[in-house]
TrEMBL record:
Protein name stated in the entry: DUF255 domain-containing protein
Gene Ontology biological-process annotations: carbohydrate metabolic process
Pfam families in alphabetical order: DsbD_N, Thioredox_DsbH
Keyword line: Signal
Source organism: Parasedimentitalea maritima
Coiled-coil ranges (or none): none
Amino acid sequence: MKSIIVALFLLASPVLAQDRAANHLLGQTSPYLKQHLYNVVDWYPWGPEALNKARAQGKPIFLSIGYASCHWCHVMEEESFEDDEIGAFLNEHFVAIKIDREERPDLDEQFMLVTQTVTGGGGWPNSVFLTSEAQPFYGGTYYPPDTFLSILQQLSTMWRDGRPDIEENATALGNVVREYLGRKAAAYPLTAEIAAQLAQQSLATMDDFNGGFGVAPKFPQESSLLFLLDQAERISDTELLEAVQMAAVGMVNGGLHDQVGGGFHRYAVDNAWAVPHFEKMLYNQALIGRVLLRLDSLQPNPSFARAAQRAFDYVLRDMTAPDGGFYAAEDADSLTTTGELEEGVFYVWTPAQVRTHVGAEAEFLIDALTVEEDGNFEGASTLQLSGEEVDVERLDAGLELLHHARMLRPKPRRDDKVLLSWNAEMIVTLVQAARAFDRPEYLTAAQSSARFILAKMRNGEGYYRVNTGGIASIDAQLPDYAGFGRALVALADADPAGDWLAEAERIGHYLVEHFQQSDGLFRMNDQAQGLGDYIQLDDGVLPSGSAQVQLLLSALARRSSDVFFSQQADALTDILSGQALAAPVRRIAAIAAVDVQNRGEVGPVRAVANGAVLVSTVIDRGEGLLNLNIEIAEGWHINAHEPLEDYFVPTRLEVNGTDIGSDAYPDPLITTLSFNEASPLALYEGRIALSVPIEAGANAVTLTLQSCSDEICLAPESLSFRFW
């Protein structure tokens, strides 16, 4: 009966809302904007209609920026935007504009900077007041209804009685924001020593007790964790590795991890990762998953491998559209059995609820998942692994029972936007996971997402950023292009026979043509939006657009015979390093990207010989072996371990400075080639597999090889790997 009541409530809600006329958001596809379609407030989308109305009527603008799965956005909507008095006042004295920050990260970042400048803080919903000429003069975040109405009344009076002063202050505030967004820094090279110093500085900000960075609210900060892993791998720094492992343990064992359904919530509201802010974002699955993959590739950890695969399985099960795109998010709020929206109710448990659904296994699960009588969230418990040794097979069987029981609860709303940059990050991670865990379904899902983007999100020679319900909209921005280019490179590494690399190269050229400024940096948009042109240097929920362009150009330079990409990658490095070092904490992804261009790729997959040779590593957990695979393109070869000619550089694999020994290398192909017909050569073609034992502790592995075609031999190259 309760499920019937909830179903009737869900069916009835839109009908009741539509007793009120739709506002100017009618026709928008964003789930967030559609949530506000029948508010008392007469919302407009950002665009010429709203901006022209404000200008023509001489009214200030109230700009509200949020996203569909934002808890406090829902609260402010219910308290203020559905309030008759507040709505009437807003409609009379302001032009009200709604923006989905996930559709418009360019506007979101600009106007968040306004609020941070005014208040010293920020968050969502972001509430910004603009002049009739769309210049910002005041900002805040969530306001309780009485406070919000008071602010509206005060600002309306100030606008009426002192408009020139407000406009003067708005010009000054706008200039401050524009100066920051268009900031310049002197070129400064990023050396290995500076990168190591930055890693140590980052280490000093970490929580030595709970793992992760700083204090609550505690965000994963995946870009910083990945930078630390890069540095750990480059210099065999066990301390850096262990710091990231500690952060991962906190996230995997804590309430940030959806222990029942898999995947990760957006952040924790406490220091110990116990109580999450319950929305689940696609980008967290991609980026936390990538951190866990990297950790497991450096030092195998069954707990990290399990959590990563559970997150990816969650994405494939719950966040994948029938035509292949990945959905954006699931809400923090869901309906109670009485039909009220409450945060976290879908995810938390009482001991009585566990006993009802799992029978004989209840006490084991209550213990293993720290389910307490008083709970740690509104009288119930977020689920956390106790940290004690547990029978994982038994745990997973019990979690499956809880998952079936949880599916009887009303589910959180899902934001079904397909966002280009977010899908790109998920594609990159799934390609890595397919290789690491021998899970071909992950590669299939990544390919399906890419094919959806190629088929449904093209915009002439460019792309759209968003596809919702089959409707593509909003011109793609810098992180979309650069991110998707990187995703295509990852797919090309996994599937060289496809056309992935050719499209990645085309995107690289497109970015330089349409987004690059005269100073060599790349704009967020191909045309100015909001407060003007700006360069995205600071990391947000994703690595900055500037960092992603650097990574794309560097990856193409290592995989393409087109020297254009190596020239562009080198030129951007010289400019970007100084910008990144001016504020390294906020721009750590750019630091990491510049380091890749300077010192080479890290991680388990590396390209050499302009992409003709791909090297990958996987640790065999059962056998204690490092398996190193060399994939050589048709028409190319590498010299054998004993190449028969002294002037050819042999393929050589060393572990901690010692060659693995002749018996560990495969038998070579003995043949002649057109450039050396007089003498036979010993060489390797196609796919070569090498396996070597590795010991506990830090292991330095070096592969040296020389790649040749039938016409030319390239300079020898060496790759260094680290494993623990």
